[in-house]
């Protein structure tokens, strides 16, 4: 599905999953949400790549522009819609995105692809996989691309993007019971962006167009020992380094993580899983402008978790009950539980009904607790600037969710499958922007200015509810039709007596109420493939983004068994359209685009 979509990035590939809200902000930024709360950093969604968490504790979320994976090496992307805190831990509030790459046994040989177009101006992917004896396989890869800017009303095309990345993976069958995997990546990027910078001195506030210098790397090691038919032990550890240098802030971060998991059968048709994990993440802020800073500049974030789950087959092959809880502690929270209960009933071999309850939390981030942010309201007629400053809040609490789900899946006929999921999520202690008190004149730092003190607090609560329908029909063995429809209703409000500044309507209106997609995949004679997609996304009133419809197309021809030529078009129904607002200034239009690609594999 990923290959046939013609998408070239992980966020774009997530459009294939029902219930996932993907909106492009500009050429190198996305908003990704699951069941609401879409934002650039996706703070309510936990993202993992081969067991390595890429959710940053700095601003709470995922920087999608640096999660570049060679899509030809992806085995699958698991999308867990709804809270997954019991298994996955903190910040898996609205969902989990787990990107899993292929074993090196599946990627032996050579692969090269080159492409170019009007927006995806050029990219090159290379992979080589081999084996040493019967028990050791490996691969190395490198990839690079350059991407042009999207459409800008003011003509300032700030969002061009260039990236180079390389990595390796090794899978070793050490014995009949033991397997070991070691893998790693290195990357460097220049991502054009527009940022706002505010200072106490004139001109007080300005938008800066410049490149963000982004780089980093990681290494991951996993060991698994099989103890029996339904029993094994797994240990995984990783080190991750990220460097961000932007015109309004900069940070270097080192993260160390170790996870242990034990799975074993128990009497009474039970399967028990338990585990422990520890993570340490050291962030160092580098001073750039006075209007945005972390206090202190050097911060150590830590996370300790314990996990226990019991899967009970109440009726073999018919009724399964799963109970579990995660217990966690961070540098910003006391011990917090995240319990869940799920039941799965399979009345026949062709249908299943499931229901679940989960409690999940989003732990405070550095930005919630230790972040000072200055913003310009206006310059008064007297020439005195009126500034608003968000001060650190050491009492910012975890955001809480109680989620309830009900779903049904059925193979209606041999050619028709339907998946329906519904949910009701109740939230409290949600992030809010609050006034601390009345504005006052402040003369330090100079010059004299009128200051409105504010803080990030937990003064929002509310609920979301919705339904997701995803049918698939295969009329014959050469044609497949898939569709999806998602409905979301959000209702957030501030606590009584709160001085909240009006965040709730913006959050409510930042996720589409309706989304619909239709995909057609057709295998034609002469090794031709034709893929067509239509999607509709309703308006985002909180951001001033209108509803839009657009379509994608891909025509591919595989010849001589080793070559594939394809022509791909995205967003074809209009010259440009708007999807989300995050950059300072006018909305960025997402352009109609296309590219030609040639791939060789051996």
From the structure above, extract its key features.
602 residues, mainly beta, 22-stranded antiparallel β-barrel, four-stranded mixed beta sheet, 5 helices, globular
Describe the protein in words.
This protein is mainly beta. Helix content is 4%, strand content 65%. It has helices spanning 2-5, 10-13, 85-88, 366-369, 503-508, and strands at 20-26, 29-34, 45-49, 52-53, 74-81, 95-101, 109-117, 120-132, 136-147, 151-152, 161-173, 178-198, 205-228, 231-245, 250-266, 270-286, 292-294, 298-315, 319-330, 333-348, 351-362, 371-379, 385-391, 399-413, 416-435, 440-442, 449-476, 479-494, 514-524, 528-537, 548-559, 563-570, 576-578, 588-591, 593-601. It has a 22-stranded antiparallel beta barrel. Strands 4-3-6-5 form a four-stranded mixed sheet, with no helix packed on it. Strands 10-34-33 form a three-stranded antiparallel sheet, with no helix packed on it. A hairpin with a 5-residue loop joins strand 22 (371-379) and strand 23.
- Structure annotation, total helices: 5
Structural class: mainly beta
Please tell me how large the radius of gyration is: 25 Å
The end-to-end distance, rounded to whole angstroms, is 21 Å
Q: What fraction, in percent, of the residue positions are helical?
A: under 10%
Mean pLDDT: 94
**Strand proportion:** over 45%
- Report the uncertain regions: none
Major sheet description: 22 strands, antiparallel, barrel
Assembly state here? single chain
Shape: globular
Number of strands: 35
């Amino acid at each position: 599905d990923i290959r046939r979509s013609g998408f070239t990035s992980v966020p774009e590939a997530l459009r294939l999953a029902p219930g996932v809200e993907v909106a492009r902000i500009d050429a190198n930024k996305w908003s990704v949400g699951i069941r609401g709360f879409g934002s650039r950093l996706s703070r309510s969604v936990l993202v993992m790549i081969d067991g390595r968490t890429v959710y940053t504790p700095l601003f709470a979320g995922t920087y999608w522009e640096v999660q570049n994976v060679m899509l030809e090496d992806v085995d699958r992307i698991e999308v867990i819609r709804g809270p997954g805190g019991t298994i996955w831990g903190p910040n898996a509030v609205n969902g989990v995105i787990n990107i899993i790459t292929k074993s090196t046994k599946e990627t032996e040989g050579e692969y090269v692809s080159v492409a170019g177009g009007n927006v995806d101006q050029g990219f090159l992917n290379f992979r080589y996989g081999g084996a040493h004896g019967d028990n050791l396989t490996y691969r190395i890869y490198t990839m690079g691309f350059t991407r042009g800017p999207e459409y800008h009303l003011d003509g300032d095309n700030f969002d061009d993007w260039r990236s180079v990345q390389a990595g390796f993976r090794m899978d070793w069958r050490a014995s009949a019971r033991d397997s070991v995997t070691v893998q790693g990546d290195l990357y460097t990027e220049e991502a054009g962006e527009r940022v706002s910078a505010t200072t106490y001195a004139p001109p007080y506030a300005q938008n800066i167009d410049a490149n963000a210098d982004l780089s980093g790397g990681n290494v991951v090691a996993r060991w698994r020992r099989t103890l029996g038919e339904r029993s094994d032990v797994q240990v995984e550890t990783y080190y991750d380094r990220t460097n961000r240098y932007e015109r309004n802030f900069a940070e270097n971060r080192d993260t160390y993580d170790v996870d242990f998991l034990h799975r074993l059968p128990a009497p009474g048709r039970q399967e028990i899983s338990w585990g422990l994990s520890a993570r340490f993440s050291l962030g160092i802020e580098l001073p750039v402008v006075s209007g945005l800073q972390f206090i202190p500049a050097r911060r150590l974030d830590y996370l300790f978790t314990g996990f226990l789950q019991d899967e009970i087959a109440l009726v073999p092959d018919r009724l399964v009950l799963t109970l579990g809880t995660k217990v966690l502690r961070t540098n910003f929270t006391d011990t917090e539980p995240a319990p869940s209960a799920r039941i799965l009933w399979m009345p026949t071999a062709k249908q299943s009904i499931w229901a679940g309850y989960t409690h999940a939390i989003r732990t405070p981030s550095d930005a919630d607790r230790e972040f000072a942010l200055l913003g310009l309201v206006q310059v008064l007629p007297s020439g005195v600037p009126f500034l608003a400053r968000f001060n650190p809040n050491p009492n910012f609490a975890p955001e809480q969710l109680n989620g309830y789900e009900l779903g049904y899946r059925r193979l209606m006929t041999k050619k028709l499958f339907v998946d329906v999921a519904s949910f009701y999520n109740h939230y409290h202690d949600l992030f809010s922007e609050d006034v601390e008190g009345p504005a006052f004149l402040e003369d330090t730092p100079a010059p004299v200015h009128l200051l409105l003190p504010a803080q990030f607090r937990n003064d929002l609560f509310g609920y979301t509810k919705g339904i997701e329908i995803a049918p698939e029909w295969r009329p014959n063995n050469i044609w497949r039709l898939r569709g999806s429809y998602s409905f979301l209703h959000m209702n957030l409000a501030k606590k009584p007596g709160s001085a909240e500044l009006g965040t709730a309507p913006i959050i409510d209106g930042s996720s589409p109420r309706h989304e619909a997609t239709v995909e057609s995949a057709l295998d034609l004679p002469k090794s031709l493939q034709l893929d067509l997609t239509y999607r509709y996304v309703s308006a985002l009133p909180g951001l001033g983004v209108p509803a839009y419809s657009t379509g994608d197309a891909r025509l591919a021809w595989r010849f001589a068994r080793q070559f594939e030529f394809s022509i791909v078009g995205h967003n074809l129904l209009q010259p440009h359209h708007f999807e989300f607002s995050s950059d300072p200034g006018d909305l960025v239009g997402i352009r109609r685009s296309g590219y030609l690609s040639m791939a060789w594999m051996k």
